[in-house]
Design a protein that fits this description.
Number of domains: 2
Strand order of the largest sheet: 2-4-5
Distance between the termini: 40 Å
Strand content: 5-15%
Largest sheet: 3 strands, mixed
Structural class: mainly alpha
Order of helices and strands: HHHHHHHEHEEHEE
Shape: rod-shaped
Length: about 290
Amino acid sequence: MKRYGLLFAIVSALGVSIFIYLFYSETGKLPTLRNEFQFIILSILLANLCGIVISIIDKGLNKVINWRNLFFTRFVIGFFVNTTAVVILIGLVGVVIVGYMGFDVFPFYDQMHEEIWKLCILTLIIIFTYEVFYGWFYSYRYFATTQVDQLRSERWQMELQFESLKSQISPHYLFNCLNTISSLLYKDSRIAEEFIRRMADTFRYVMDNQHQKLVKLSEELAFVKSYHYLMQVRYHEHLQLDINIPSRLMDSLVPPLAIQMLIENAVKHNEISKSHPLFVYISAQDNTLINI
């Protein structure tokens, strides 16, 4: 609310200043509040109405044209569209007011043509200045937001890698794997051999990518499949994994261990049994998001 109050005050002051300038240039004296109160209020309302229109137009243009990538194009289009809209708006309001006061529109405009030209020039200067500062401010805010998001992402990746590394290479994890291998050697040497190979793949992936910020999605999914195999030996068919991601996305980059950690959390925090099986489904949304 404070922000909107400040904007209202600034725009209102600008509207009053324009009115004072036009009045003084026409009469050679300053307007008095008693005699020109209605026109001062009208100037405030019209200035804020123009501000609202410009704000709506700029928000719409920001969705179509990016300041950062197309600064000059965005500036030119914004300046042209806003100037056109404001001139039309002021003209329509002027027609209504002149008609309400009982004057003929065209003779009145002929009489006031000098002030109208001054108003148009002031409008061009104000909108030009506004677009310059607005573009600079928007670009700066976008840059600052991008930097903050990047720092947050890097921090999250580091924390994720750290937690995943602790989980994967912890003595407890290794102890469970060795116990499983020991049990399998007496039951099924073929499965034991495959288990050892998959376990080696997981450790190799962890060690090879512990300092990497991003890896290919195909590599992460291969690691996830190996991890799922290790878990499936323990939970059997009660833990199912289904990956449905188009091959064209396999070269996309993701933080290492990100998908695996989500699956690990699902395993840790859910009961997995014959009566409560766990199904993990991995898919892509809009070619940008991974759903798990």
